[in-house]
Amino acid sequence: MNQPLPHAALVRQPLPVAVRDALQARFGERFSTSPGVCDHHGRDESPFPPAAPDGVVFAHTTEEVAEVARLCNEHRVPLIAYGAGSSLEGHLLAVAGGISLDLSEMNKVLSVQPEDLNVTVQPGVTRKQLNQEIKDSGLFFPIDPGADASLGGMCATRASGTNAVRYGTMRENVLALTVVTADGRIIKTGTHARKSSAGYDLTRLMIGSEGTLGIITEVTVRLYPQPEAISAAICSFPSMGSAVRATIETIQLGVPVARVEFVDALAIRAINRHDNLSMPEAPHLFFEFHGTEAGVKEQAETVQQIAADNGGQGFEWATRPEDRSRLWNARHTAYFAMLQLKPGCKAVTTDVCVPISRLADCVTETERDLNASSLPCPIVGHVGDGNFHVAILTDPEKPEELAEAETINRRIVERALAMGGTCTGEHGVGLHKMDFLVSEHGEDALDLMRAIKNALDPNHILNPGKIFRPVR
Ligand SMILES: Cc1cc2nc3c(=O)[nH]c(=O)nc-3n(C[C@H](O)[C@H](O)[C@H](O)COP(=O)(O)OP(=O)(O)OC[C@H]3O[C@@H](n4cnc5c(N)ncnc54)[C@H](O)[C@@H]3O)c2cc1C
């Protein structure tokens, strides 16, 4: 049995024949209604049951996106933008049917402006592709959500990940967008200038809107000079609390670490099995330092001392690129390694983020909850930002396990909110975090969000049923 979908109020209508015929005539083989293609576009890593769209359009240009939006708007057909499909909270599920607009073939790097440290890309460019294509420019794009997500999808979820502690999230790094509105208008938000006070900030409105306010068809992001020196380090700790305290001291001291990632003992066991490694099964911190040779050495020595003061052991360096990539590869495959702790499971993933001063309390109290649970609950976290994820491993056929996972999630979220934090640091709301928005923002703020949605998408065609629970 699967978790019930929170979209009961949405009615799934058959795709109007006029829309199907128009898309077929306009896009030919780039419009598919094959069950395999539709199924692929209506599922994700979340424990929610798949919900396939009625058809998939593979768009190539902004004008094509606008045409599809106009057609869907005219016929009140749901339209769901699809990037790389790596989102975790049911974002892509076509809970009311409709058209999935696959943007992965809009994957050109349009222009690099090295003097301004900017690049403009189509939305289907993935972060790895971008870094590969600009590597000879001496610049790089730092936002790294682990998965090889698309820039459009990363904008839409306001993604961050391991490097955000140093370089910020998509919120800080997007300068301008081209957006197709629900009724098919093409608008530009922002400019290539580093700052602007010209009116409402539509760029920031779109960042994190999860495909519910517009379809992003071009993205201009900041780039950074590739650091002269990079080194990585790994260190084990006697407890989660001591690892987190070492992180807090590092941040409060102003050490400009590029990455500081927490991995608990159970997650280390999973990584060891998955990657054939032999790290001690204890809580670990993974660090990365960027800067000049001297700066990196100084940062690393400071952090090594902080780690030692907090009981850290076996501080190990990796300066050679191949050693660093082995280390970070282990961290990046942690999610899939953790799933293998319980074959056939699905992870209910928590994503709270709290002010750094409350992180130790939040993690320690959460640890007590998890120790009392019957489910395996490995933890990883971008702790430098105060953000951590518990992967609560559940058998999707057992409703009692899903219910227990949601109870744990709720307790963690309520704790984070009470500490001044958020229910989702980076994954977004999707179908999973809707119930927490009132507690986090208040009813009036949520009403304002609904008013924005109504103004930009009065027919509610854009990714319906996400962010807000539909009103019966
Ligand atoms: C193993 C793993 C680890 C992860 N770790 C992290 C992490 O550390 N940090 C993090 O932030 N995330 C993480 N994620 C989640 C995921 O990678 C991000 O949410 C990512 O930003 C999604 O991008 P995507 O291209 O896959 O988007 P999709 O999954 O295709 O879409 C996500 C949402 O964006 C909308 N959308 C997509 N493209 C557009 C567009 N062009 N215009 C408008 N709306 C659009 C979709 O409708 C949907 O609502 C992880 C996922 C996995 C599987």
From TrEMBL:
Keywords: FAD, Flavoprotein, Oxidoreductase, Transit peptide
PROSITE patterns xrefs: FAD_PCMH (PS51387)
Cofactor: FAD
Keyword Protein biosynthesis included in the entry's annotation: no
Gene Ontology biological process terms from the UniProt entry: lactate catabolic process
EC number: 1.1.2.4
Pfam families named in the record: FAD-oxidase_C, FAD_binding_4
Residue span(s) of domain FAD-binding PCMH-type: 49-226
Signal sequence range: none
Keyword Transit peptide: yes
InterPro entries noted in UniProt: FAD-bd_oxidored_4_C, FAD-bd_PCMH, FAD-bd_PCMH-like_sf, FAD-bd_PCMH_sub2, FAD-linked_Oxase-like_C, Oxid_FAD_bind_N, Vanillyl_alc_oxidase_C-sub2
MF (Gene Ontology): D-lactate dehydrogenase (cytochrome) activity; D-lactate dehydrogenase (NAD+) activity; FAD binding
Family stated for the protein in its record: Belongs to the FAD-binding oxidoreductase/transferase type 4 family.
Protein name listed in UniProt: D-lactate dehydrogenase (cytochrome)
Species, as recorded: Cupriavidus basilensis
Lineage: Bacteria, Pseudomonadati, Pseudomonadota, Betaproteobacteria, Burkholderiales
